[in-house]
Amino acid sequence: xxxxxxxxxxxxxxxxxxxxxxxxxxxxxxxxxxxxxxxxxxxxxxxxxxxxxxxxxxxxxxxxxxxxxxxxxxxxxxxxxxxxxxxxxxxxxxxxxxxxxxxxxxxxxxxxxxxxxxxxxxxxxxxxxxxxxxxxxxxxxxxxxxxxxxxxxxxxxxxxxxxxxxxxxxxxxxxxxxxxxxxxxxxxxxxxxxxxxxxxxxxxxxxxxxxxxxxxxxxxxxxxxxxxxxxxxxxxxxxxxxxxxxxxxxxxxxxxxxxxxxxxxxxxxxxxxxxxxxxxxxxxxxxxxxxxxxxxxxxxxxxx
Amino acid sequence: xxxxxxxxxxxxxxxxxxxxxxxxxxxxxxxxxxxxxxxxxxxxxxxxxxxxxxxxxxxxxxxxxxxxxxxxxxxxxxxxxxxxxxxxxxxxxxxxxxxxxxxxxxxxxxxxxxxxxxxxxxxxxxxxxxxxxxxxxxxxxxxxxxxxxxxxxxxxxxxxxxxxxxxxxxxxxxxxxxxxxxxxxxxxxxxxxxxxxxxxxxxxxxxxxxxxxxxxxxxxxxxxxxxxxxxxxxxxxxxxxxxxxxxxxxxxxxxxxx
Lengths: 304, 258
Fold this sequence. Notes:
CATH superfamily of the largest domain in chain A: P-loop containing nucleotide triphosphate hydrolases
Mean pLDDT of chain B: 91
Shape of chain B: globular
Order of helices and strands of chain B: HHHEEHHHHHHHH
CATH class of the largest domain in chain A: Alpha Beta
Shape of chain A: elongated
CATH topology of the largest domain in chain A: Rossmann fold
Number of helices of chain A: 11
Largest interface: A-B, 32 and 24 residues
Mean pLDDT of chain A: 92
Strand content of chain B: under 5%
Distance between the termini of chain B: 18 Å
Largest sheet of chain A: 6 strands, mixed
Oligomer: heterodimer
Low-confidence stretches of chain A: none
Order of helices and strands of chain A: EEEHEEHEHHHEHEHEEHEHEEHEH
Structural class of chain A: alpha/beta
Distance between the termini of chain A: 39 Å
Strand order of the largest sheet of chain A: 6-7-8-3-9-10
Radius of gyration of chain B: 19 Å
Radius of gyration of chain A: 23 Å
């Protein structure tokens, strides 16, 4: 039985469709990612899974129960890291965890033991008695993760867990999430960092305008939709015309955006040498990534 | 609306108590020091001119009213500035709602916490009044504390309903200036309501304060209170209604509509 199952899930806000009839099923032990630009409906989707906002239509079962009817029971068994920092700023690090444990009715003695374990796991032991405003952004996010784990959840849901963090802080969070995944925890996350999705998720759903555009295993989606390689050529207008002419003649799939042309070749080395014959421009040959897929789907131009 | 779960409300109350423990000194100065200054400043200062009301020296007339004033002010402050900060800036409610605790539990926990702060200030003031021999009916202490706790609950519920529709701290000026101050002035705290035109003092009877003041005065000095039962019934009615309104307004604010 899936941990989360949605059929025709919908949500409107004052008449506007935020989530427009989506289907997905998340299996036990899986790390599932919702990707998409701001306003795609990712946060709305996870907030419905969390039981924080009711859905307007369709079915949504979490941990085998209808979340619309049993949000209270389901919340006993899920951990939530929300996008806004809502740690309790009036309390210290350890008090945040122990107070939170009390909301779950966990006995004080167990709560303290569990809190100390989690602080060690997230490398926050030295900050045990510090108040929240004295913590860095990365530490606050780690504490939010510790807090979400205090009730030993079966499902952990993170809404943009590393947005706004520096690279080191992000790396530490990725390591910890990977380790939780290895231990068999089911994880749902939203992100707009493609690297994060590629590192952590088993499957992704790419969302835009409240619908799921594509769903699957990241590597397979990239291979099927983009291929193995990408060649980026940056050139001035005159040279660019020549290159595009060449690519058209070779019938190689490519897209031009401003001063850069993105080439998706079947035989990379062959195309590469042909382009190099033509010009001495900036050429980058790399593996196709989720970013290429994402930009293919959502478009490369800036969206408002 | 789900029937409230008192254990869960207690968790919210405990959270506020934990925070209170870390800055109780500031709270004591504000919630208890200020009413005591009023009690003696006005009780003795104005008392020198007024002499007696209903056979009591002015400070004795004023004391039970001042007790009610401090209970309602403590609750009103806690459940406006305090609760509003927790709800908006600090996002404490949002954090709690990710747990099995629901909006009803939060609202009731907050109301009980506001009433607890009323209780702290009335209890301390009673001690001061006893030390100054203004208050001597020791047998009535439990009933007086109960009466003040009830007033604290009523005002916490009202204040929380106001917080749920407030859009900024400035909004509370409406509540304090247009609502709380008239209630403080015309509920029989500083002077008997019999001095006012009947239609005017009648308006204030739709709010809890004049009822609580009358009950307090009866508990302090006895006498015949013809409206006491009516007042008690009124308070018993006001609390569930006020709480229900606070819950539904808070829900409307925190859970976006379809």
